[in-house]
Amino acid sequence: MIESILIATDGSDAAHVAERYGTALGARLRARISAVSVVEDKIMQGLRADSLGVPPGPVEAAEAFLKARAEAAGRRLAELARGHGAECNAELGRGIADDRIVERGQGVDLIVLGRDGEHLGGRTALIGSTVHGVLRKTHKPALVVPMGAEPGGPIVLAFDGSPGSRIAARHAVELATRMEQPVHVFVDSKDKGRAAARFDEVRRLLSSLPTPAREASSTLGRPDVKIVDIAKSARAGLIVMGAFGRNRINDYFLGSNASAVVRTSPVAVLLSR
After folding, report:
1. Higher model confidence: residue 223 or residue 247?
2. Least enclosed by CB within 10 Å: which of 17, 44, 113, 144?
């Protein structure tokens, strides 16, 4: 059961999308909502460095600004939660952002993150470095919210028979039941015998849904592309999938399909583990 949610924010526009999504989801699930915003030490260390004889700038003013911005982000999130009839306990952290988020997230059921971070306009990576670090380090389910994502709408479950996808199926049942949304389930069917067995398994896992899931499969193309296409065509509000596929040992960040879906999906992605 998802009974507690941690929303990480850096005060950016991208984080604001995650704040709105996370508070709306928390209110729908009647979950406890908390927030964390981190003042990163690496920024202050860079400002304090005496490099090539150039003296450091006004460090105290910069530190005060970063702290004030983090506190303002917490207040904004708390106000969003109150607008949904919920309460939010906002905390200020200090250190390496992904480490602090992972530490704080150990006591909750779900971590919510904005995918793109505050440097969206000036970077070439497809997700923010803090999000990358959290997804790589945490052992908790994580919800990654891209710019433009809105809560509500059907749920797409990507199922490959891995342990993570079985957990994802449980999350899909819980969310669909509590949010009164239909489920679309995708199984890659390049191997027809294996696909039939996976459909049989996922039907059992989803048997408690109020209405049967809509099923989709494909023999052509990359699974990650198909998952995103199904989410678009279904006007889904959420994709749920395992964080690691069947070849977890070969992946440092995430399973290959999970990482591709996170990078490209226009809707929020819940990575179950």
Report:
1. 223
2. 44
137 and 160 in a common domain? no
Nearest to 272 by CA among 75, 138, 94: 138
Q: Which residues contact 71 (CB under 8 A, 6 or more apart)?
A: 37, 92
Task: Provide the pairing of β-strand 32-40 with 183-188.
Answer: unpaired
Per-residue confidence band for 254, with pLDDT thresholds at 50, 70 and 90: low
With 70 as the cut, is the pLDDT of residue 5 above it?
yes
Residues 37, 69 within the same domain: yes
The one-letter amino acid at 66:
L
> Whole domain around residue 105: which residue ranges?
4-145
Contact 5, 22 (CB under 8 A): yes
**122 has a pLDDT exceeding 50:** no
| 36-72 burial: b if 16+ Cβ within 10 Å, else e | bbbbbeeebeeeeeeeeeeeeeeeeebeeebeebbee
Residue at a domain's end among 118, 145, 172: 145
Looking at the domain assignment, is residue 162 inside a domain?
A: yes
- Residue 150 located in a structural domain: no
pLDDT tens per residue, range 170-201: 999 999 999 999 999 999 877 777 888 999 99
pLDDT at 231: 96
